[in-house]
């Protein structure tokens, strides 16, 4: 590509809200075969809501929600805000929290009014030595509806299965259809559990799913997608996505995402949704075609 065509392409991108931080990305995007997408905040709004709460025998829903929300109000994860909002909407009084701890990719824990409260994924409960088998049918049903099942333990006893749902952005289905129309494979990488991730993928026609990825595992997930010499673009928004954005052949950050993601990406999508990916690849193809 000539410097002039790269300059023109970069300028057109800027007009469409696609910022090429490095001109080379305009060339490397042309050869991409797989577009890998982060789920939370990229495909979805990143603003989950509480949808379900079933307590185990001996626990009441409000008692569980109040304890869980007290802990989650301290969390930086969007799941935390969802549970805190739900308790607030019900006017529940939150107790005094001590010893808050976040375990990225697993869940959160603290003491609330002297009671030990732990909230998180099934793998977190497994780590605590708690068996969630009693909730297996319920969790499977929630996952099939694209909801994320979580578990609460109170004083070391399994107290409830809770679910949150994060709406798919209105622009996502059309963007994925367009990527398919361009002959690309679409993959999804997420920390969410397999059943939920697969339900979301099915709704959107996503070709490959890499679920249950721990925050530090996203780079390995990109490496796996790149096996066999496939050229992979990765689109993400979160702090956890930064290393994967650097590892991919091309990293694209959602412009409404975190600063760390934006700084690690070669392309920034100012529109805040996946139509920017479609525009970026179309522009790359048009620009490079003209000069080859
Ligand atoms: P993602 O960004 O895809 O949600 P994370 O690694 O942040 O991935 O989270 C993975 C999983 O860990 C969540 O789906 C949830 O089950 C659990 N988890 C993480 N943080 C919390 C939290 N604050 N409360 C409850 N569960 C959590
Ligand atoms: Mg995200």
TrEMBL record:
Belongs to the cation transport ATPase (P-type) (TC 3.A.3) family. Type IB subfamily. It comes from the Bacteria. It is found in: Cell membrane; Endomembrane system. This is Heavy metal translocating P-type ATPase.
């Amino acid at each position: 590509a000539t410097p002039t065509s790269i300059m023109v392409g970069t300028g057109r991108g800027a007009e469409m809200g696609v910022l090429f931080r490095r001109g080379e990305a305009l060339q490397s995007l042309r050869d991409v075969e797989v577009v890998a997408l982060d789920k939370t905040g990229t495909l979805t709004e990143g603003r989950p809501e509480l949808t379900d709460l079933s307590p185990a025998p001996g626990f009441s829903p409000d008692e569980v929600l109040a304890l869980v929300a007290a802990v989650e109000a301290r969390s930086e994860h969007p799941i935390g805000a969802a549970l805190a909002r739900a308790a607030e909407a019900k006017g529940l009084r939150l107790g005094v929290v001590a010893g808050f701890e976040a375990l990225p990719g697993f869940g959160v824990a603290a003491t609330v009014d002297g009671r030990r409260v732990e909230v998180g994924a099934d793998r977190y409960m497994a780590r605590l030595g708690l068996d969630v088998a009693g909730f297996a049918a319920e969790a499977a049903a929630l996952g099939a509806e694209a909801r994320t099942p979580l578990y609460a333990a109170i004083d070391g006893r399994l107290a409830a299965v809770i679910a949150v749902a994060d709406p798919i952005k209105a622009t996502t289905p059309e963007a994925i259809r367009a990527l398919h129309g361009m002959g690309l494979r679409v993959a999804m990488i997420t920390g969410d559990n397999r059943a939920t991730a697969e339900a979301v993928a099915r709704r959107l026609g996503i070709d490959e799913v890499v679920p249950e990825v721990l925050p530090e595992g996203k780079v390995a997930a990109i490496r796996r997608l790149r096996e066999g010499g496939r050229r992979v673009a990765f689109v993400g928004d979160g702090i956890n996505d930064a290393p994967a954005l650097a590892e991919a052949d091309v990293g694209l950050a959602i412009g409404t995402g975190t600063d760390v993601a934006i700084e690690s990406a070669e392309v920034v999508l100012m529109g805040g949704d996946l139509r920017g990916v479609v525009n970026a690849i179309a522009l790359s193809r048009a620009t490079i075609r003209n000069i080859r």
